[in-house]
Amino acid sequence: MHAIPTAFEAFFFVTAVTVEPVTLISLVLAATLGALLGSEVMTKLNQRWVQLIMAVALIITALLMAAKLLGWISLLGVANQATGLSGWKLLIGIGGNFILGLLMSAGVGLYAPCMVMVYFLGLTPIAAFPIMMLSCALLMPISAVNFIRHDRVDYRGLFGIILGGIIGVVIAATLVKSLSLTALSWLIVLVSCWTAFSLWRAAQRRKNAL
């Protein structure tokens, strides 16, 4: 359901935002391989603890980014403009996206942590969009095969979700392109906080259900 709208948004941002090919391809492939492996093994792990750890990590990262934007600290880099990674930063990016691909199979969204990761590695904030969207556009259908094979899919609302997702992509893509880099950075902070809250709430529901 979500793979088709995600493919649309990936096509838009890959053609509209410049990211060095080596960085884009390597991070996307890492996430895809991670999701493929995760769809086989991630469900065997304690998902509640994964959600709690990611929630705490996102809150800490969001606070650090907010402190930088407010001028409280200067250790996080100034006005990131890079469109590609190299050396140890590229290796960290590949490893990080591989882990995020694994976590996708546990219900942990890739978008917010991927945005934060590439930001701290020095990329311009808007470069995160083609990386995270193309990652999900490829890993969703590939990892979905295992869930379909085990009959763990609910097909209700299939076409409505696909159509609504495509329409939402067109609107969101136009809005994001018109934002300033400062606005994009604050957007990352807000999305990280909301994702952390959602993960924490899901972990608590899982605890109460036990």
Summarize the structure.
The protein is 75% helix and 0% strand. It is built from eight helices and no strands. The longest helix has 29 residues, at 181-209.
Structure notes:
The chain is an all-alpha fold. It has helices at 3-16, 21-41, 47-69, 87-104, 111-120, 128-149, 158-177, 181-209. Helix 3 (47-69) packs antiparallel against helix 8. The protein starts with a helix and ends with a helix. The mean pLDDT is 81.
What order do the helices and strands come in, and which of them pair?
Blueprint: H1 3-16, H2 21-41, H3 47-69, H4 87-104, H5 111-120, H6 128-149, H7 158-177, H8 181-209
| Shape assignment | globular
Estimated helix fraction: over 70%
Summarize the helix and strand pattern as letters.
HHHHHHHH
Mean pLDDT reading: 81
Structure summary, number of beta strands = 0
Termini Cα gap: 29 Å
Work out the strand percent: under 5%
From the helix content, strand content and strand pairing, which structural class follows?
mainly alpha
Which structural traits does this protein have?
210 residues; mainly alpha; single chain
